[in-house]
Amino acid sequence: MRSRAERLARALGVAALATALAASVWQAWRVDAPSGVSSMPPIRLDATTIDADSLVARAVRERIVRAAVQQARTSAASDAALVPTVRLAVSAIPRTPVRRVLGAARAAGVSMQWEDSTTLRALSFQAVRTVSPDSAVDLTASAEFVPSSREQNTRSGRALVMTDGGGVLDSIAVVAQASGGDALNVRLRVSSLSASAGVRVSHGGRVIAGTLVAPAPTPTVGRVRLYAQPGWEAKFVTAALEESGWQVDASFLISPKAAMVRVGNPMALDTSRYAVAVVLDSGVVASRELLRFVSQGGGVIVAGAALRDAAVRTLSAAAIEDDRGAIAGTLITDEPRRGVPAFHLAAREGATVVEREGDEPTVVLVRRDVGRVMAVGYRDTWHWRMEGRDDAADAFRLWWNGLVSSVAYVGAQATVFDAPRETAVSASMWPGRAAPVADMVAQLGAAAPLDVAATSSTRMAFAARLMRVLPWVLAVLIVGSLLVEWAMRRLRGAS
Amino acid sequence: MVARESAVSAPFVFATAQYDSGDWDSAPMVPANVIDAIARYTSLAVAPQGVVVPLASEACFQYPLLYLTGHLPVRFTTRESEVLGKYVRRGGLLFVDDHNHDVDGAFHKTVREELTRIAGTLVPLPNTHPLYRAYFVFENGPPTTSHEMNGWGDNLVHEHLDAVLINGRLAVLYSNKDYSSEWSYHPDNKRFLSVDNTKFAVNLVVYALTR
Fold first, then answer.
1. Which of A67, A129, B45, B96 could form a disulfide with B11 if both were Cys (CB 3.0 to 4.6 A apart)?
2. What is the reported pLDDT for A318?
3. A122: β partners
């Protein structure tokens, strides 16, 4: 039976061993834990900090430097090459300069972890100068919101505002989606922008996206040569294009004695004079003229009855497949072109279907040489303008202007480009300011909840460190056991 | 929904506007004479008979050129005003002729009030307007009518027609030269005329179909 002293010695030995083991574990945890993971709170990016871009960028750089220094101190005692990590809690989309700093840090090897707490899940914004005499700009914005308790009931939290240098262009409210989020899809055509020609989108009073607009096309754009029989279709197509700013030249055969009625100053078809040729009827133009025009880069629209013309058949983007009569009552619906007669088309090889009714193409576009040819299956579209809804005249004008603009020859190509400060590499690789959320993902990777990420990385680092200090733990155990055994022998010998 | 027959390259149809007040049908022979002139001088496809379209009906929108005349006071109903306003704003052309040839007459005064209220201010149309060169050339503007020359009505020869322009386009053309009387005869009697006085009607139709 062991004496009291022996039991006490054994208990002291066990306690010493446990203490040594705990100290080893704690030391393993303490030695190589990067300060950026365990002890430093995440950098929070919200509406207030985003406004101080330089401060945020500086804060990020400081964190990176501190983490790198810490890693350098412990690198000698560690086999694992721990990567300095910066954690971001993002509740507002940072501006381009901040995103660049973060992206550059990530490219340099700094681990960037960010949590998306924004109410704006995605935003795409584009401004395109149309090829038309008024050089109107098409602004297209698409966004999805996740309503938050803070912003759900505030007007500013549920709207995007488009502005240019001259002030507000439009304010677009979000609409509720069946899935529970809020969505925004809007297209706005603006005839004139301020001289700076930069358009911005703001949310909650803060600019979140912006883009510059391409310069206006050269003055050679603006004239249309019309080939048609005299009639209401020719009249109203001419009216729509003239109201859109195009100059329309045409000549009409009126009498059996070849008397011509001229509209404008019709001349030979050439890209030095005309951007587009519109053919509405058969037997009104020679195919060789159109072929030569297209080979120069001009645009040709073959519409309605002209699709039957054998002379333009080889040039056309599509062949007639079917003939649909006008559907009564549809001129005043959301699909007014179903209220006019139309050919359903079979697109030729390499052609692009621009518009269709169900599965049936009705507008088809194809490249021919350096020009473009469009086939439009609709006939007597003037019924839409005269017999449609109250906004039919505007819609009719926009539609025809869009068709002509899409094939028009331009002397200098209009381009769309982002902010001029974007580098060539970044502009080609990332979305930039036109899609800030997508740009954030491209720069930093996908977002993830910070707690899970931090915990998982902490656990892995701890396991690795534990394996490194295990030999020391075993050594302590062995020495401790020897000391306890020696003490017990001494006590037995004393007793 | 039933598909209606496609009207590919449909012929021109001469349409007369029917309105509630006044005598809208005071010149029943005008349509036939104008149709004859178009067929005689042009190769335009034209329907052999004209149509009468109620001004209160949106059927007007199917006829982008409308003819309106009368002797008596004119007061468009609310519905007629609404339809007429839409008609001219969408691109239709309304040709109005005072069958009295009288600037002091009831038709002239009342219809001009109504047109101003619905479509806009009537302004003199310059005699250099393309209308006067749309097919035949009228160097001095609108041709004078026999009723202006023989002292009927206000005993005036009106130098200009009046018009309402919308976006630079003719929306309303107003005449107090009494073309309704000038063209009110059977087309067969043209052979007795030294000058066919319906040629200006051809200009009107050709202009409407091409501008």
1. B45
2. 92
3. A144
Identify from A253, A255, A324 which residue to disrupt to test chain B contact, counting B C-beta atoms within 10 A and taking the largest count: A255
Q: How far apart are CA A253 and CA A273, in angstroms?
A: 22
The CA-atom distances, in angstroms, between A325 and each of A152, A322, A337, B18, B58 are: 49, 10, 11, 30, 21
Interface ipTM: 0.92
Given A281, A325, A386, which is nearest B3 (Cβ)? Answer: A325
Q: Indicate the burial class of A351 (C-beta count within 10 angstroms; 0-12, 13-18, 19 or more).
A: buried
- Are A326 and B6 an interchain contact pair (Cβ–Cβ within 8 Å)? yes
* Helix or strand holding residue A241 (H, E): helix A232-243
Residue B12, phi then psi, degrees to nearest 5: -70, 135
> Which residues are within 8 A (CB) of B67 and not within 5 positions of it... i.e. 6 or more apart?
B14, B15, B16, B17, B30, B31, B34, B95, B97
Q: What's the rounded Cα separation, in Å, for the pair B209 and A413? A: 36
Q: Are B37 and B199 in contact (CB under 8 A)?
A: yes
Are A119 and A146 in contact by the 8 Å Cβ rule? The answer is yes
A379 vs B2: CB contact, 8 Å cut-off? no
Distance CA A102, CA A444 (A): 7
CB contact under 8 A, A253 and B43: yes
B6, B167, B206: residue with CB nearest A230:
B206
Instruction: In whole angstroms, give the CA distance from residue A474 to residue A479.
Output: 9
Cα of first residue to Cα of last residue in chain B, in angstroms, is: 34
Question: Does the distance separating the beta carbons of B4 and A325 come in below 8 Å?
Answer: yes
Q: In chain A, what is the straight-line distance between the N-terminal and C-terminal CA atoms, in Å?
A: 13
Verify whether the Cβ–Cβ distance A328 to B41 is below 8 Å. no
Nearest to B91 among A252, A341, A393 (CB): A393
Q: Which residues contact B60 (CB under 8 A, 6 or more apart)?
A: B15, B17, B53, B54, B66, B83, B84, B87, B92
Contact A259 B210 (CB under 8 A): no
Dmax (CA) for chain B in angstroms is 57
Q: Are A94 and A60 in contact (CB under 8 A)?
A: no
The CA distances from residue A443 to A93, B4, B63, in Å, are: 13, 58, 61
Helices and strands, counts by H and E, chain B: 6, 8
The CA radius of gyration of chain A, in Å to the nearest whole number, is 36
Longest dimension (CA), chain A: 145
- Chain-wide mean pLDDT for chain B? 90
Confidence of residue B186 (pLDDT cuts 50, 70, 90): confident
Describe the crossing of helices B106-118 and B78-90 by its angle, rounded to 10 degrees.
60
pTM: 0.66
The DSSP call for residue A378 is B
Q: Can you state the angle between helices B78-90 and A392-407, rounded to 10 degrees?
A: 10
Return the axis-axis angle of helices B199-210 and B30-41, rounded to nearest 10°: 80
Mutate to test the interface with B, among A134, A236, A261, A394 (most CBs of B within 10 A): A261
Q: What is the DSSP letter of B12?
A: B
Report residues of chain A scoring pLDDT below 50: 31-39, 51-52, 79-80, 149-156, 413-428, 452-460
Q: Which of A27-41, B112-126, B143-157 has the lowest mean pLDDT?
A: A27-41
